[in-house]
Specification:
The complex is a heterodimer of chains A (about 70) and B (about 375). Chain A is an all-alpha fold and about 70 residues long. Helix content of chain A is about 70%, strand content about 0%. Chain A has helices at about 15-35, 40-60. Chain A starts with 12 loop residues before the first helix and ends in a 5-residue tail after the last helix. Chain B is built from ten helices and eight strands. The model of chain B has no long low-confidence stretch (mean pLDDT about 90). Classes of the chains: A mainly alpha (about 70), B alpha+beta (about 375). Chains A and B meet through α1 and α2 of A and α5, α6, α9 and α10 of B.
Amino acid sequence: MTGARKSRASGNWADVYGGPLVIGVLSLAGLLVALLFEGMGRYFSWIALGTPIAVTAWFFIRRKTP
Amino acid sequence: MEAQLKARTVRLWSVVHTWSSLISTVFLLLLCITGLPLIFHHEIDELLGYDAKPEIALPGAAKAGVDQIARSALAHDPGRVLQYIAWDKDEPGTVLAFTNSKVDGDPDAATVKAFDAYTAKPLGIVGGGPMLVMLKLHTDMYAGQPGKLFLGAMGLLFVVAIVSGVVLYWPFTRRLRFGTLRDGKSRRVAWFDWHNLLGAVTIAWVLVVGVTGVINTLAEIMLNQWKSTELAEMVAPFAGRPAPVHLASLDATVAKATQALPGTNISFIAFPGTPFTSSHHFAAFMRGDTPLTSRLLKPVLLDGETAEVADARDLPLYLKALLVSQPLHFGDYGGMPLKIIWALLDVMTIVVIGSGLYLWWVKRRKARRTGGVILDSSSLQPSR
């Protein structure tokens, strides 16, 4: 490792499942918080449950075009 | 040796993923597509005129009594009897009255009418229109209870497809950076990447919506279980009591039920003889006043002639689970932004299902051309 940017994930557990896991936990938190706390809970749930959409949009914008 | 074992495990999971998906695909697409407008059924009903809107009440105006609503409902539906009167938490301006040919009549024969909560004037029939068609297709495909259970089974297959998809995500994407979208390569590679990305980011939401949907298909079974055990126990001490000759005042009944459970509000009242109570008692179903407890109901049995409280108890855990699972399936508990997010996640799920079907079809066609052997040089192979 000389600090060069890896073009491919190294293939360990966290690299493969880390991203989806964080998004999944955020989604679950968003689903439950809106149910338990009205008002401020709603704002949190919109942001938390919006992450799958935002992340997808970000990857779409950053995709490699030929 | 180990590599061989791994390859066999991956193949096994692939078979599980392929077949659990393939069998449920058509029905899941139906559920996702009919579910999309159902997220906005309130707004669509309103737009199409299937939603009864109350008159604007003058400030300080008093609400009509429950007895007044009941008289109005019976007067506007001659020859029929009242089964239930219900109050929607989100529609304080209206009261819903369910009438039927008899108190234990066929649920499909019931008429639901909205009444103005202040003037007790009828506002029209609730439900119907295209959203009812969507709802029927979404819940039982017009096939009644068997249709419901069938869709529940498809939901379970969907859960199997998701779990096997998570397992396969490792061998198929471990050499790829999370969120890789290669659209310079073949169409197949492009859809493969979209399938993985959309599947991976929607997984928690789709599991919650899927599992709560399956729970909802069991609603009738749970309700019957409750009626034959807990409700039967509640009404047992009053066995043999005749149906009330003169019904107690509904206002008094609601007031007594609210007194018995302070901090609660009436959700709906079931008339004596309906499936939700005994032939002699009213059952008042009360809801709490916090976001969570407002979803849960607590039944109070009251004498049909004197409105005296006979019994009150919590619902069993499985019915509480059902009541809490409903908002998590409908997405109707976080305002319009949550509904829009629900719709976008639903569309993303449709893409996951559609791309999965496409990938299966392309792979099959390829396998046929090569005589059953899959020669694949693209990166759609599992990597060790």
